[in-house]
Amino acid sequence: MRIVRTLRIVKTVTIFRQLRLLVGTCIASIGALFWSMVLLMVLKVGFALIICQALQGYILDDRENLETRLLVNNLYGDFGKAFYTMFEVTHSGSWPSVVRPIVDQVDSWYAVPFLAYITLVVFAVIRIVTALFLKETLASAANDADMVMEDNRRMARDSQMKLEELFRAADDDGDGNLSHEEFVEAMSLPSVQGFLTSLDVSIRDCRPLFDILDDGDGLITIAEFCRGLMQLKGQARALDIVVLQRENAKLMKECQEIQRRVGAISDFVRSAR
Predict the structure, then answer these.
(1) Per-residue confidence band for 103, with pLDDT thresholds at 50, 70 and 90
(2) Number of other residues whose CB lies within 10 A of the CB of residue 227
(3) Are 169 and 186 in contact, with CB atoms under 8 Å apart?
(4) 89-95 — which CB contacts under 8 Å span 24+ positions?
(5) Closest C-alpha to 58, from 45, 75, 80
(6) Is the whole model's pTM more than 0.85, yes or no?
(7) Are 61 and 106 a contacting pair, CB within 8 Å?
(8) Long-range pairs, 85-91, Cβ under 8 A, ≥24
């Protein structure tokens, strides 16, 4: 039981939620990681074989400079050396130090395959792999129910604070209530409309809105103001539409029942005459 309680505590602490997100992302990305490594391995092996074979003639040529031949041999003398060099080129960002000697001292035409490899693999493929892992991270975060709930609570708190600030700014006399005039005047300001738009609250006509927020006493309190605008925030949810449809259906049944009873009473009155 202690272990279970400890795990629950770990689950609720923010720092551990971030850790859980990282672990979950790594687990979810195992497949993408494997195939990314396979693709990069194939590209590195293929280019290492090509460049190793291409430079063998220069390394074995006694007419060339011995110091340069030794340098080229250390970098590309066999497949193992060439593969390790390509690993550095791909992942360490140190490709100028191992490419420049070949281009400057062996043959400038070697710049063509190296530039093609750097452009296609180091620039394009590596960034595609990075974007893939970023996508997995975002998907994992979106599927984390605890983090989604925490984000929703945080956004609700921020919106509540902003609406309270707006209410206090609109309350000219400072009595803690908004009259119809104060409300219409405040809601008509472009700055206020822009502020509400940033909160995802769309207001086309502020005059009927007062009647929606007001509980019937002709004044809007800060609680009514914040609660009402929070309910108007965003698009109508499917649940809201379903509830509205059910309420309309109930009203229709009640109206039909009233109509039936009124008809029965009317028939009774006629028969009594």
Answers:
(1) confident
(2) 14
(3) yes
(4) 89/117, 89/118, 89/122, 90/40, 90/43, 90/44, 90/121, 90/122, 90/126, 95/122
(5) 75
(6) no
(7) no
(8) 85/48, 86/44, 86/47, 86/48, 86/51, 86/117, 87/44, 89/117, 89/118, 89/122, 90/40, 90/43, 90/44, 90/121, 90/122, 90/126
Q: Strand ranges (DSSP E) for the chain?
A: 177-178, 220-221
Separation between Cα atoms, residue 6 and residue 71, nearest integer Å: 58
Q: Give the CATH architecture of domain 149-232.
A: Orthogonal Bundle (1.10)
Instruction: Give the chain's count of helices (H) and strands (E).
Output: 14, 2
Q: What is the DSSP string of 162-175?
A: HHHHHHHHH-SS-S
- 64-82: pLDDT as tens digits: 888 888 988 998 989 999 9
Taking the alpha carbons at both ends of the chain, their separation in whole angstroms is 80
User: Tokens standing for 22?
Assistant: 């990282």
CA dihedral 74, 76, 82, 84 (to 10 degrees): 20
Q: Which residues pair with 220 in a beta bridge?
A: 178
